[in-house]
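Training component of the fellowship. As part of building independent skills, the fellow (R.M.) carried out the full modelling exercise for a liganded target. The chosen ligand was pyridoxal-5'-phosphate. The inputs are recorded below so that the supervisory panel can assess the work.
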Amino acid sequence: MKGNFPTDKFQKVETPFYYYDTELLHRTLKAINDEVAKHNNFYVHYAIKANANPKVLNIISQAGLGADCVSGGEIHRCLETGFSPRKIVYAGVGKADWEINLGLDKGIFCFNVESVAELEVINELAEKKGKVADICLRINPDVGAHTNAKITTGLAENKFGIAMRDMEPAIAEAAKMKNVRFAGLHFHIGSQILDMGDFSALCNRINNIQDELEIHNIKVENINVGGGLGIDYQHPNRIPVPDFKAYFDTYARHLKLRPGQKLHFELGRAVVGQMGSLITRCLYVKQGTAKQFVIVDAGMTDLIRPALYQAYHKIENITSEEPLTTYDVVGPICESSDVFAKAIDLNKTSRGDLLAIRSAGAYGEIMASQYNCRKLPQGYITEDLSEI
Ligand SMILES: *Cc1c(COP(=O)(O)O)cnc(C)c1O
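Fellow's submitted model of the complex:
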């Protein structure tokens, strides 16, 4: 089964480009909102680092989601695309002064603080402005996720967050500071997680932490469990919308929230991954000594995930119905790692055919670079193409 694409429209657009299927994005957002509506204290902040295309962000902000930012640039982008500052959370191990000042000036909901040193700087900068910053402490829960080693974040060895044994001293430090207010705890264990057991392990860890804090009479208003829900890269057509019910139910079942506590989520990939495809044109079909190569006009500069994480993306020839043939699909960049797939079956491919590299809506366009002096790929939503 192949995806359904407006290939006639695609013929009029310069390749390579990202295509964002807005019908699927709306369907995905509705699936999230339907699940969230079953719980009166769940809040979703879209992790905008996954895809910051302004048109995509407009749709997500209109659906009522908040935003999770990891830089000042992302805060600017969110505010330009309709997100309320009161729904912005801001994490990052290395927040610069101007970024903290921006968050303070715009009145964001919360800083997710990753060290006591950062806490001191936020307190100082907030004092200069006569403000009090709400902060959550990002705790490294030492919970592993069964995913690519480059995208785990919640192990003791990772650079993120405050170690558990430093948590209570950090809360005590925050309590002494006049211009920060302790608003809760933040966690994020990694990305592309499909085993709900990883999330329930996080829940158990948070339950233990809460029991401990309760003994010391420390009140926690907000729990933020980060993001990480994965998508089905193998089956973008069969499973276009992630199983949000299983995801939210896992937290509802395993996390023991205290009365009045709010639970926050930061989903990135699961919101935008499946709605995006990188559309590229076959430049040449080359017979090597042992294999046949399809050389396309997109490269690792447009989509770096295969080169960086050995990530799998399903590829379809969307303009050929000829019998299947085995190819390596490679880009034009002067790097041996510029390979999208090895030994995959495509409908027989010829120069000029269009290929869709699927499930590329997350960590695709936003990670593009200009290496080899290449142009950055454009991103088009469905509505952009209906006008041409
Ligand atoms: C990247 C990131 C997310 C989103 O991760 P996904 O796997 O895309 O859901 C959420 N929170 C933080 C702090 C992050 O760094």
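The panel noted the following from the submitted structure. Residues 138 and 186 are 4 Å apart (CA to CA). The pocket of pyridoxal-5'-phosphate is lined by residues 47, 49-50, 68, 70, 91, 188, 191, 226-229, 266-270 (CB under 6 Å).
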